[in-house]
Amino acid sequence: MRSLYIVSTPIGNLEDITLRAVRVLSEVHLIAAEDTRITRRLLSRYDIHTPLTSYNNHNRFSKIPQLLKSLETGDLALVSDAGTPLINDPGHELISSAIEHSIPVVPVPGVSSITAAIVLSEWEIGEFMYLGFLGRKKTERIQVLKQHMNVKCTLICLESPHRLRATLEDILHVLGDRRLNICREMTKIHEEIFRGTVSTALNHFLDPRGEFTLLIHGYNEKELPNTLDMDKASKLIKDLKVQGLRSKDIIRLVKDETDLSRREIYKLLIGYSSIPD
User: Which residues are CB-contacts of 116 (< 8 A; sequence separation ≥ 6)?
Assistant: First the structure.
């Protein structure tokens, strides 16, 4: 029985690959790739001619018997489209099946957008909590954020361009206007590192493009009253919106019920475009 190699690949810049990864991809009998078209570009860059087969969320269950069969005669490498497999990528079922069949599973470490973002932070990150993608639906994101609103270490999550602004608005409503780092298109031509707060990020990313890694500063006891007011204000805004009140009236009423400034309340109105002016 041969080995299953979990091989990390570049997240953008094709030069970000280890010598070991190049060797393993050259020596295995088969490479299981999330998207064979993307992996083929990497293999071409390094003149690797190992056969490819697809292994993704759509075929991961039906493909496992074939991949286990191939491991009877040669080593197999698992790669994702970018970065380290299994971190928000398909592969868990294959790894579990390999372990059940006593097949050695060997990691080949490499680049990760998570660690790349951490080393760019202006605040010290001794601990962090990785949340992955917060969720496609607003209710899912709100639930996750509320579960972690009192976590003191840095929170890290990923987001796609079409959901970035909605996610930032949810973070502002639940966690308050915390310090925030956003890494866009890591290691690629249009790489961008944004450092600021949630509200300034909303003003900056008006038309988000690319893939995003977010570092959210951890909870601080001194921020608790403001965070609670943010949550209370968000609920009041929703209720007053249903009543059809004008923006200036909503701001006045919310200010009477919380310790937030008019500026902070106005920021919470971002995204509520249907509120009458």
Answer: 11, 183, 186, 187, 213
